[in-house]
Amino acid sequence: MSDTGRSWMTRLTDAVLDRAGWGVHTARDVAEEVKVALRAMATPGGMRGVAMEAAWLTAHAVLYPWGAITEQLRPDGQFRHYRTDGLPPRQRGLMVSAMDAAGTPIVLVHGIGDNRSAFAVLSGALRRRGFGVVHAINYSVLTALTGDVRRSAALLGAHIERICEQTGADQVHVVGHSLGGLIARYYVQRLHGDSRVRTLVTLGTPHNGTLLAYLMPTPLTKQLRPGSELLSELAEPCRPCRTRFVVVWSEMDQIIVPQRNARLEHTSLLVEEHQIRDSGHLSLPVDTRTLHVVVTAITRSDDSLGHPIAAGGEACRPPEVTDGHS
Asked: Which is nearest to 209 in space by CA: 173, 255, 166?
């Protein structure tokens, strides 16, 4: 990047962070994060990621009206089949070897201003792999203007209770994209949702806020600013959480700024991290690496969940898994 580009970027981040009450040192740190993202875009994988982001943005615009229609829950799922000989080999294998995983409902929670069409690819891929109950929920498109993470988390909890009642399941897996991951985290961490959510996978979620939230002064976006009251509440020590967290973030995320704010470190949470170098924010739910992470997370043995969660940070930060080239 040229000196002119660096100077322009530094002045811009200085101005934004000065408005937020942050120091110049932090602004320079953010500028470094932006440079990391730009370097990621300059790689062959990054160029593919930019192309994927543009293509998915176009496809998503076409699918958006369809996604506004509320999805009907099909509680029988794979239990419609009492024989497996008519199923594709992949579905048959999952049902035979991991019946519990195949029968546990998967709840998909979209991001701000979006709807369930964000998961059009992911939900279909999960069903093709034998997961019978895959349900994407919608919340109001006005959430960006009038929403509240705490209220949305309570509504998510009520929705999950209905799903468990209709399917007979004791627990669910949740995949949350962007804001959806933060809503699910609040439900799990602060509303005792860890009794219902076995695994929470977050994709590009602003666990530590995003500077872009300063561009829109609404009640919801104020909650998404770094250091907000809501994020400070989530960062507080809490009782050990039974839910396993799987966090996916990208160095090329253009919505979470700085990108590392999509990471999650908490002394009371068991967190597994997957870093992707070259995926845009919108295309994270359609990235094949994301699908691999989701499938692996929700079919994994629950043995690791039986281990006690210590108070020290080491218990909450398993070895980092980097998926930059996988």
From this structure: 255
Q: pLDDT value at position 142?
A: 77
User: Other C-beta atoms within 10 Å of 302: how many?
Assistant: 12
Size (the chain), residues? 326
Q: How distant is the alpha carbon of residue 97 from its chain centre?
A: 27
Predicted confidence at residue 283, as pLDDT, reads 95
pLDDT value at residue 75: 63
User: Is residue 244 within 8 Å of 199, Cβ to Cβ?
Assistant: yes
pLDDT of residue 48: 80
Tell the burial category of 280 from Cβ atoms under 10 Å away from its Cβ (0-12, 13-18, 19+): buried
Bridge-based pairing state of the strands 172-177 and 197-203: parallel
Q: State the alpha helices, DSSP H only, in 21-76.
A: 24-41, 44-67
DSSP string, 278-317: S--TTTGGG-HHHHHHHHHHHHS-GGGGGS---SSGGGG-
In the three-class reduction of DSSP (H, G, I as helix; E, B as strand; rest coil), residue 137 is classed as strand
Regions of the chain where pLDDT drops below 70: 1-42, 44, 74-100, 301-326
Distance CA 117, CA 110 (A): 8
307-320 burial code (b ≥16 CB/10 A, e <16)? eebeeeeebbbeee
DSSP E strands, 165-309: 172-177, 197-203, 244-250, 270-276
pTM value?
0.79
Sign, Cα dihedral of 67, 72, 77, 82:
negative
Cα dihedral 52, 137, 67, 133, rounded to 10, equals 80
Say how far apart CA 108 and CA 163 lie, in whole Å: 12
Give the whole-angstrom CA distance, residue 190 versus residue 187: 6
